[in-house]
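Changelog note: in this version the structure field was regenerated for every chain. One regenerated record is shown below for reference.
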Amino acid sequence: MVFEINTSLYEKLPRSFYERGDVVQVAKELLGKVLVTNLGGVLTAGKIVETEAYCGRGDKACHANEKRTRRTEVMYQRGGSAYVYLCYGIHHLFNVVTNKEGLADAVLIRALEPMEGLEEMKERRKFTKAKLASGPGTLSQAMGINVGMSGQDLLSEEIWIGKSERNEEFEILSDTRIGVEYAEEDALKPWRFVIAGNTFVSKVVK
């Protein structure tokens, strides 16, 4: 299904939003913002309801911690770039690179509340009874995001994060990150954030 595209509908976050030094604060402030893709004339959008913060220095759960590889090179770009990697050879996981160039912080987007382009999302997901965009792999599939988009500027016309449509007030809950047991003591960092009471999160914080 092709929509009339109005890319100004969701005003892009400025570069300065991403280049700040506190990745935890950025992860919190991404909640309630709108992830948008405009692919082949099809606009899809979803409200960000769950995030995880990763620090490129001193965080064993972060891909870039103590190592700079071909896969993680994109994390060293300036804030406001997309970092998309393949998990288990199947799932394309979308991250937002933050901080200044060379510091490799990133925020994993874990769940969306679908807002626009639902029929296209369902078609991409081969949607049955599973939540449409609740989980980092499923949301990327629903939004048409793949590893070929890694390194793309989030101020582009193809993928961006927009400001909230209204000043929505909500409570933020925190918990440990998911799937990082290998990170020893850093696995205990309470760096997963969700909008309290939102039914689209991948895992409820108790």
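Spot check on this record: The chain has one domain: 15-192. The mean pLDDT is 92.
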